[in-house]
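Slide 14.
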Amino acid sequence: MSPTEPSRRSPGRGIASRVLAVLLAYGLIELAAFFAFESVTGTAFASTTGEEVHAPDAPDLKAGREQAGLGMRDAAMSLHPFFGYVFTPRGPDAPPNPLAISPEGFLDDAIPVRKRSDSRLLVGIVGGSVAGQLGTWHSEHLRRAITAVLGGEQEVEFVKLGMPGYHQPQQLQQLTYILAQGGELDVLLNIDGFNEVAVPAALNAPRGTHPLFPMNWSMVALDVPDLSVRRDIGAIEFLKGERRDRAAAFQESWRSKTVWGRLLWRLEDQRLAERAAEHAWSLQQFAVDEVPFFVRGPERHHDLPEGLIPFCVEVWKRSSLQMQALCEANGIRYLHFLQPNQYLPDSKPLSSEERANAYEVEGPYRPVIEEGYPLLQAAGAELVARGVEFHDLSGVFEGVEETLYVDNCCHFNGFGNELMSAAIADAMAL
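Slide 15: predicted structure.
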């Protein structure tokens, strides 16, 4: 090679440098996506691994305000003459579903009318969706906690009666319904409080519905011949299907193995969920003057001078006293628990994830909880004075900085249910 002849780079070296540059650029993109993930989505990347692609298949309790506001995917509702509504039992040819539904329409795989046995402790669970979740997806937490404090002489068997949206006096009616059919229990756990103030004030009263009627009764019982209502219901179902289809496709894609791919998928999924929530809230907005008698009820109790929430708290207290009396008459130990809630001030240090996804400053629940929970706590003290085993669990998450609440109303994750289960078991050991 002469001194003036330009040097020639090896073709292999050029390809290698380009590949290296591409890999470096890709690594920088992944790194940037990693650091942006939490600030953009409100959840840490590590905590979402393996979970986000299943999000549409989980109980959809944040966007569960649609239609009946019940938030249980693929579970149809049926009217019930005593409770307002139950889940529609599935036929033998129905596709598999992780949500067990008893022949009576409750979240159980067995009938609720059972008999005591020396070999088992028959524990009934009543309340709203928090009680329903504890009895279904998180029942093992409660079973282990009860067994640990009471010993393993008897097998713990649950009669699962907690239902999304149920509030007093529905729990009282459930108890009388079971007893009237000859059902027996050893223990009855009543876990409630949130629905007793939130359902009447945030969901029923704004639509002219009697506060003690079932949650969103106007959407459960009324076939509204209104184009905008039908459009909203159709849009919600379409968006739910889109989320499921996109999640399934994403799970099979190589992009699910990348940080940037998961970030983009999460953003799109959040966008679809927000659109569904917008349509769900619009279902709450139809003319009160058009509500018929069987939906609105005999009186407008939310117009009472003493106020809607104090009225509902009194009904809650009286219902619990009636449940105590029924349980005493039938040899059942009755324990009543006030469930925790994120909107009660100073009840839990909220994580950044909870503030982003489980706390709405301008939402409908914060004001009713801030007004209603102190009244519930005061009424709970009256229950104790009258012999009820009442336990205030509203502070059970005090000092817990980890993320527990998973939606904007009241529900918490597995660890939250584990903590609540331990508190319930401790109360049973007293």
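Speaker note: Residues 74-224+286-429 form a domain with the Rossmann fold fold (CATH 3.40.50.1110).
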